[in-house]
Design a protein that fits this description.
The mean pLDDT is 91. The chain has two domains: 185 residues, no CATH class; 80 residues, N-utilizing Substance Protein B Homolog, Chain A. It has 16 helices and no strands. It is mostly helical. α2 packs across α11, α14 packs parallel to α16 and α15 packs antiparallel against α16. It is 71% helix and 0% strand.
Length: 309
């Protein structure tokens, strides 16, 4: 499920944690990293559970409205288009998926923020909701668009949603845009949202493990290389995250013969845009460029296959 870029980011986060304390055994640290990857799948189920619980809340809301002392005609016969949305029905009819997301319903049902009510009120007061209910269009494509729009406009950027997610994992906010894209892709392409596979194949898992071990096993050696190619700057002058990004690039450049230099460099330059300053990005780009050119010239690195340089 994860792209190589997202794998790099998750490895980077695990490495940053490991290198900050350096008390864990490597084998234990690897298990911890893989658990960190599995939390990405959890986030997907947590978000799907929010959709289901929001619809359940809407259903209860309309049922309670029927018991008013003076119910309106709408209270007695509410428009159930949202509750009967086909995307939600498909989720509810998937027993495996429902069993999995039921583990995370407590995120939204048992908190002090009344989050379901707040999101629901925002949704039902919106033009988006009223257009959807009053539209004569009854198609699965329209149902898909509505759910995606609700998530984009009222869930993914909600500050309380962020707060609740951050209480579970400090990394989930970073993962949120990617996981939302995965969910949207599942919805648009009629793909089952039930999946416990974090890696597309074993090669991606080995890529993550080798990247993680490569930095740890060569950490001190990479320190010396950074100092050499940063014109003898003291390491203390280079941000820890910048050092880590450079070291991860070193692993790919020096040990992964099937990855082109340009792919590695471009990936880490892109990652640095989100995790480093603009000045740092220029520094990382310049150091890696100088390193690659020097090591190619000295015959210290090589790539196997055409077009990999």
């Amino acid at each position: 499920m994860l792209s190589r870029r997202h794998i790099r980011i998750k490895v980077m986060q695990s490495l940053y944690s490991y290198l900050s304390i350096e008390t864990e055994d490597l084998a234990v640290a690897q298990k911890s990293m893989l658990k960190h990857f599995n939390e990405v799948i959890e986030l997907k189920f947590v978000l799907i559970s929010l959709l289901v619980e929001l619809v359940n809340y809407a259903d209860s809301f309309y049922e309670e409205a029927k018991t008013k002392h003076f119910p309106t005609s709408f209270d007695l016969d509410p428009n159930r288009k949202f509750i009967d949305n086909q995307i939600i029905r498909n989720i509810q009819n998937n027993n495996k998926l429902m069993k999995e997301i039921s583990k995370f319903s407590s995120f939204w049902l048992n908190n002090d923020h009344d989050i379901l009510n707040k999101i629901f009120i925002n949704v039902i007061k919106s033009d988006l909701y009223n257009r959807y209910l009053n539209s004569s269009i009854n198609s699965i494509d329209y149902d898909k668009k509505f759910i995606v729009d609700v998530m984009n406009q009222y869930i993914l950027n909600h500050h309380l949603v962020h707060h609740i997610l951050e209480e579970r994992s400090i990394y989930w906010i970073d993962d949120l845009p990617f996981i939302a894209t995965v969910i949207f892709g599942d919805i648009k392409n009629d793909i089952s949202m039930y999946s416990s596979e974090i890696f597309k194949d074993l090669s991606d898992k080995y890529f993550a493990l080798n990247l993680f071990k490569g930095v740890i096993n060569n950490n001190l050696n990479y320190d010396h290389i950074i100092i050499k190619f940063s014109e003898n700057w003291d390491l203390n002058r280079i941000a820890k995250m910048d050092q880590l990004i450079i070291k991860m690039a070193f692993v790919e450049i020096m040990t992964m013969e099937d990855l082109p230099f340009k792919v590695t460099m471009n990936e880490y330059i892109e990652i640095s845009k989100y995790y480093s300053t603009k000045k740092s990005r220029v520094f990382i780009n310049g150091l890696l460029d100088n390193f690659v050119k020097t090591y190619i010239r000295e015959g210290k690195v090589k790539k196997v296959g055409k077009g990999l340089v």
